[in-house]
Amino acid sequence: MTEIFQFKPKSTLVATENLEAFIAKCRDELTVFGSDLKWGEPVWPNITVFAKLGVTTRKPKPQEVQDPEFIDFAKAYFRYQQGHRPTGTKNESKALRALEASLLQVNGNANIEGLSISVLDEAAELARQHYSDGSAYQCGREIERLAKFVVEHQLVSSAVHNWVNPIKRADDKNKTGREAKKNREKKLPSDIALNALAEIFSNDPIHERDIFTTSVFAMLMSAPSRISEVLALPADCEVFETDREGIERYGWRFFAGKGYEGDIKWIPTVMVGVAKTAVARAKMLSENARQLAKGIEKHPDKFYRHANCPDVADDELLTMEQACMALGLVCESRKQCHNSLYSRGLAPKNGVHTLNSLWQHTMARLPEGFPWFDKERGIRYSDALFALNANQFHGYRGCLPVELHKPTNNFFNHDLAPREALDGKHASIFDRHGYRTENGERVKLTSHQARHLLNTIAQRGGLSNLEIAKWSGRADVKQNRTYNHMTEYELVGMAERLDPTKALFGPVGEVAKHLPVTMQEFNTLEHAAVHVTEYGYCVHDYTMSPCEKFRDCVNCTEQVCIKGDDTEKLDRIKKRLEKSERLFFLADAAVESGEMGADRWYQYHKKTVTRLRELVAILENPDIENGAQIKLRGNDFSQLRRVAEKKSIEAIEKKGKESEEAVMLDDLKTLLGGGLG
Description:
The chain is of the alpha+beta class. It contains 24 helices and 13 strands.
């Protein structure tokens, strides 16, 4: 289990000593990436490479490794941050590379204690030179975070915590022209790739690798999701609900990334069938792995008896063939048995191993963090939709029935695009099924292109930005622009389809002009224009005017409380009363001492306390039935009252004081309470 800690610097120590202590604790006590992590190596396999800026190889030469004065800090910072906030993009690596290069250029050495504003500025400039606009911005953000971190934890003596990333977010690519068209085409999947995957999916593939790739992509096309979110879904993610019209709706329970909380993503009706099939196939693929994980959780000291496991006692000595069968290794011949055991570091001999000893070997190979598939989201391997057996999709090694595997983003994406660096040794799903472009080129795709496509389709369909952001699991609505790839012609077409005779602002443009309304219509106002507040409900109609009280709900006549509705709301009112009484006491003392302006606060708090006491007394009165609507009278400004008063005067002048309209308007003014403000 991964252990983390919160580093707390000692104020009595100088920055150098705190820095040494930080590095030592991250090296010796942190278990992020495993307790057996080779700290001294510049390459942490499948994690990161501590190389200089501009070095792209995964096996850097000695002169390409980061400076000895810097590399230990870089490792400590990287390990600490990844332990507390794991990320897939590893922006820490980019920031550390730029910072090391900047320290060497500005100071002549790479010691982090030499951090200064000049060093940070130069690091940002280097990021601009070496990374794309988007990556440079993210790198700058990480440099800014690093600067705050080292100051807050007293690792450096310089005051650089106020440094702000000077790199602006990359401009939107949704412009006109040839360049914009190229950018859109890069972000959106090609028709041939989409049609190919759809065809493979619909033909009910038999190979597990094809089933996995097409199922995951079908899910990506069912709702705009990040690949990491789909791969982290639980096996019981499916949600079925019946809407108001009696129609069953289908969705998935998601835990979104990038700062957005968990939610249910509802699947469009047209994609429900595809989505259900994809989930069912994924469950089929992961069934054995989930059963294995359950077996380990229940009996961690017993060998998991899979279908091909030899039927022998746990302590019975095994032949090489039996040992290979138990582990799921290739054993078609004695030579293969020998090589399979040898490659695993096991003695290739008969009568050496038992199921008990092999189980100890297997337990040592459990994935890091087991039983958690995704601890942050609370998902175990036994519950994960995409938990797999090791080598489950391997061509010739064979599936390992007693070992688990967690598919990564790259594991999926590598099957969607050719890996040219492998010189034809790797075949994507398109290669395996013989799909090529019109020019004979190899077809390629990325998981994120599906997200861009669905967002663009939603924009074309007129879905609001708020709805698109929520559906996409996006915390910032402004980010929708990055995913909108509608052409200028499509935007013009949408504008042409608008009816200029109709209001452009929805309900606001359709407000009735015949105010005031009848008594019957007015009685429905509290239910037609209702907004939930912390104390009850607000019946102010915001189509007429904004809030005139600046959310001072207690002193507003449009605040409605429901007796017996919610004890929580009554508790909030009582707490507000306690605070207001204290403030009233202080205001009273200020008036007595002759402080200038204190009389205004005295009057305000007096009014507030009086109204709150009255409200609490009413809400706790046993003689008043539950469900009663409580609205305190007052003398607030109200646009509706002003309109009612004007109409009342006009009705009296034209039809007399006893006319039906005049009487109705008089009753309306009484209900509204108070004067005209």
